[in-house]
Write a structure and sequence with these properties.
The complex is a heterodimer of chains A (195) and B (116).
Chain A lengths: L10 H9 L3 H22 L4 H18 L10 H19 L17 H21 L3 H12 L4 H8 L3 H19 L13
Helix pairs in contact in A: 1-2, 2-3, 2-4, 3-4, 4-7, 5-8, 6-8, 7-8
Chain B lengths: L2 H17 L6 H14 L12 H8 L2 H20 L5 H4 L2 H4 L1 H4 L7 H6 L2
The chains are: A mainly alpha (195), B mainly alpha (116).
C-alpha cells in the first residue's frame, strides 16, 4: 500500500500492517511518530537534541519490537510512546544531574525588529527549557504534556499512570514553580512588550 | 505584578515553545526507518512465543526434564509389567493385604467401603 493511501489509517491499523510485514506501514509510522517522540524527548531533556535523538531511536525500537504482540484498543500508540519516551528521558536525566544553570542561558540580543522578535522567541524557549529542567521529573512531564504538547488531563493521567486529579495537582505545582523561576527574566525576555 | 499577569507571562513562554517545535533531522528519520524495516516481521513468517507444547516443555524443565520424566515413566511401567524378583522381599502383596481385597483401581467405591 503506498504511503498516501495510509493517511486515513489510524496508528493501530498501521502497526498491525507493520507487524504483518508491510514496509509502507513502517515508513508511514516513522514519518508520523518520529517528530512527536523527538519533540517530547527534546523538551523532557531540557533541549539536548543529540540525546533526544538516541532516546527517539530507542523508544521507536521498542515500538517495533512490541508490534507483533500489540493488543489493539488497549492503549493508544501515542500514549504508549509518550510514556516510554518520558521514562527513558527521566532515566537519562537522573544519570546526568547537574545541567546548565538558569543564568547560563543566552541573553536576547537587540537587532532589527523581526530578528529581535525571533531572538526573543528563541530566548524564551531556552529560558523555559532551563526552568523546566529545574522541576521535579513528574511535574516537568505533566507541564510539558499539558501546556506544550496540548494533551488532555485524562490522556496525561493514562500516560503517567495516575488519576486526573493528580495530573491537575502536578501541573499546578509545576506552573507555580516555573512562574517563580521565570519571574525575574520576564522583562529582559520581552514579556512586557506583549501587553 | 498581579497573579493574572504571571499566568499570562507563562502562557507566552508556552506559546513560544509550541511555535518552535523541535524537528527531527533527515538523518534521524532515515536511521529510524532503516531500523523499522530491519525489525519488521517478515510477511507470512509466524513470530512470537512457543506454542502450548513448547510452553509445557519449558515448564517441565526443558528437554532434559522431559527425558527424565519419560525415563521414570517407562521404568514405572516396566516394574509394573514385569516386577524384578527382589521386589517381593520388600513388598509382599499378601502382607499388604491388597490382593485379598481385590482393589479395582478404576473405582473409588471399594476404598470408600473399606473406610466404612
Amino acid at each position: 500500500m503506498p504511503y498516501d493511501a495510509m493517511n486515513d489509517c489510524d496508528d493501530d491499523d498501521l502497526l498491525a500492517a507493520y507487524a504483518a510485514g508491510d514496509a509502507a506501514a513502517a515508513r508511514a509510522l516513522t514519518a508520523r511518530l518520529t517528530p512527536m517522540v523527538f519533540g517530547h524527548a527534546v523538551r523532557m531533556l531540557g533541549g539536548d537534541a543529540a540525546e533526544a535523538e538516541d532516546i527517539t531511536q530507542e523508544a521507536l525500537l521498542r515500538l517495533w519490537r512490541a508490534a507483533p504482540d500489540w493488543r489493539r484498543g488497549e492503549a493508544k500508540v501515542t500514549t504508549w510512546l509518550y510514556r516510554v519516551t518520558a521514562n527513558l528521558c527521566i532515566d537519562r536525566m537522573r544519570r546526568r544531574r547537574g545541567g546548565p544553570a538558569l543564568d547560563a542561558i543566552p541573553e536576547p540580543v537587540d537587532k532589527t525588529p523581526s530578528v529581535a522578535d525571533e531572538m526573543q522567541n528563541a530566548a524564551r524557549v531556552a529560558a523555559l527549557q532551563t526552568a523546566l529542567e529545574a522541576l521535579p521529573d513528574r511535574q516537568r512531564q505533566a507541564v510539558i504534556l499539558r501546556h506544550i504538547e496540548g494533551l488532555s488531563n485524562p490522556e496525561i493521567a493514562q500516560i503517567m499512570d495516575i488519576g486526573p486529579r493528580a495530573v491537575e495537582s502536578l501541573t499546578a505545582r509545576g506552573k507555580r514553580a516555573l512562574e517563580a523561576l521565570l519571574s525575574g527574566r520576564r522583562a529582559e525576555l520581552g514579556y512586557d512588550d506583549d501587553d | 505584578m498581579t497573579e493574572r499577569k504571571d499566568t499570562e507571562g507563562l502562557d507566552a513562554f508556552f506559546a513560544a515553545a509550541r511555535e518552535e517545535s523541535p524537528m527531527p533531522s533527515g538523518d534521524l528519520l532515515a536511521r529510524i526507518e532503516a531500523q523499522a524495516l530491519a525489525e519488521m516481521p517478515r510477511a507470512g513468517v509466524r513470530r512470537g512465543g512457543p506454542g502450548l507444547f513448547g510452553q509445557l516443555v519449558q515448564v517441565l524443565g526443558g528437554w532434559q526434564g522431559m527425558a527424565g520424566l519419560a525415563a521414570a515413566c517407562a521404568a514405572g511401567v516396566w516394574i509394573g509389567v514385569s516386577p524384578p524378583e527382589g521386589l517381593w522381599s520388600l513388598y509382599i502383596l499378601q502382607e499388604a493385604g491388597l490382593d485379598g481385597l481385590g482393589v479395582d483401581p478404576l473405582s473409588a467405591f471399594d476404598m470408600a467401603l473399606m473406610e466404612g
